[in-house]
């Protein structure tokens, strides 16, 4: 079975529309601002998708572009402008940012109530407590959980193995699944025998950024595989000269799994749909 993120994301968006209508009836128009530094091609592709989804449901989208020479202090001033503007409900600082930018200081500057990416300590801390406090959880983990729930993949008591321990995917998805009573193992670059862990997984979630890191022999028969990775690999047959692939060897592994996400069309659209939900939640909570 294919865990279809494109189709499920559309369902999530459709479900969101009545919430936006209710806000509009009260004269409130949800608005997202994305701060974009430079012109990284992959980032531009991601934000185009965010713009498309926002416009589809009636969220105002504004992009503020800055040169790669921007300093941390200048960026913090731009963040504060958004923080104090009551007409804006969501703020994203599109990653990656140039090397001179101090990322922890930038995240700290974002008003947690407008932190629709769910990166601030406040929102991460709330997510830690229980599912009831997941008001603005990180978008990719939220999208992964919603995709598993849509396909009725049971989580309680299941062996979940996560490969990758970043702050935006691996660690928060581990917490969200623990809060749903899964037994969670988190692997990463320093894990001694990766395959020994992955082979035990009922649900395997891979968020690394290395094509074909996970091969068929590393997956248990009947497992559910969620491939978060997005990698550009050279492909002369494509007009743009590359294709997008995940971290798992899809062709061989998909024959063995009970369910698997495609790349593209799996976690990517779910992340953007989860972001849209976070913008709506932020608007509702700022407007009570
Ligand atoms: P990151 O670079 O911050 O972290 C990578 C993680 O992989 C680290 O925990 C590292 O220890 C681990 N790792 C590296 N090499 C490894 C190896 N050989 N074996 C085991 N673990 C290894 O990554 P990130 O920001 O979480 O992103 C991971 C991937 O997911 C990237 O391809 C990124 O583009 C993609 N991504 C996709 C979405 C989406 O919406 N689909 C969202 C975020 C990230």
Structural overview:
β1 (31-37), α2 (41-57) and β2 form a beta-alpha-beta unit. This protein has 288 residues and is α/β, with parallel strands linked by helices. The strands form three sheets. It has a five-stranded parallel β-sheet with strand order 5-4-6-7-10. The chain has a three-stranded parallel β-sheet with strand order 2-1-3, with helices on both faces. A two-stranded antiparallel ribbon has the order 8-9. Helix content is 40%, strand content 16%. The mean pLDDT is 97. It has ten helices and ten strands. It starts with a helix and ends with a helix. The chain has helices spanning 5-25, 41-57, 72-83, 103-109, 121-129, 139-150, 170-178, 194-198, 250-253, 267-286, and strands at 31-37, 60-66, 90-93, 159-163, 183-187, 203-206, 224-227, 231-234, 242-245, 259-260. Bound molecules: nicotinamide-adenine-dinucleotide.
Describe this structure in a few short sentences:
The chain is an alpha/beta fold and 288 residues long. Helices cover 40% and strands 16% of the residues.
Q: What ligands are attached or bound here?
A: nicotinamide-adenine-dinucleotide
How would a crystallographer describe the biggest sheet?
Answer: 5 strands, parallel
Tell me the span between the first and last alpha carbons.
Answer: 42 Å
Shape: globular
Q: What structural class results from the helix and strand content?
A: alpha/beta
Strand order of the largest sheet: 5-4-6-7-10
The Rg value, from CA coordinates, equals 19 Å
Total strand segments: 10
